[in-house]
């Protein structure tokens, strides 16, 4: 019996080893013209028809809130049972501790770290009945699972921070439910999630004060981000405002700037206000954008190549964060996670595990470009339309598996891209099309409210 040469065996095995492959633009099946909004808009018969008025959007938002997946911070005074909050925070702490995370040093988080966290949470001082106070975010914030800025990853390799819950835009209202022992962290609830934030980044206020601040003429940021300045000469940079941020309009001035009003924190920790400035040609819109296919596809493409960051890590977006950012420019409130987002709006279709590819493809011809979202629990995409018999989407994605010989390579993407739904075909998990479970149209179920 002839033996295989060690050199040939080594060559064969090396060809079977999984590889980490960096994305090159564009992805297979995508040309540069497909990466432009104009291509998809020109295919539409009525791209400028307003699909929902303000009344219709309010109806859609009510339906989302009634499902319990979006919380209206200012809807009414809220009483929260302290025992429920205490139990929830204890359970969360135990669950996180059980995951055996490692810190930014690559070493396991120590028992002393966990003792300090539990002491800092000060759960024994949660009252039986909580009458929450209100606050407003002074800048873009990271909502944390625990009151710490320590990073927790699941292995010694580069990972996402597992303590990160989500990011919160500047100038958003929150309910303050609890304070840490040193009062340097607050446990808050915003419209899409709850978690810990640094107390210095929240200004306390009465409910009516923040409601009045939000119920005034405003502009909404339509670019990926724009700069906010503290002086009319635009020399004092204050912060970046991400897409979807609402900013209260100030006095009308002619010249090179737009006057706006931003919240600040007084010496006593309470809410105050100051004038700030935007470039006169900054990408903002007076009030929310009209809900048309042209506008929403344009907004989606403004995020093309925007980096991926789980839960807003690195001031980036994940798949559902990208969807949130797009629809927020129209005043549409969506839940935080892909599972809940795929319960919003109208059900167009759903697929079982054994639904054939041809049936899936045929069903997607009923999808409405620009206002259809599709995916499965764990991932969500923005539907662009059909071209040459293939369905295309825009998505923010970390990566995909790609089959090669007897193994699978990891195709690292790490940003917002255009792809067709065949991406991932041949891998163990299957293509995007084969993994779809839900397709929704972002319109209210009760269209008679429009």
UniProtKB/TrEMBL annotation:
Residues 157-197 form the SH3b1 domain. PROSITE patterns: PROKAR_LIPOPROTEIN (PS51257). Transmembrane segments: none annotated. It comes from the Bacteria. This is SH3b1 domain-containing protein. It holds the Pfam family SH3_6. It comes from candidate division WOR-3 bacterium JGI_Cruoil_03_44_89.
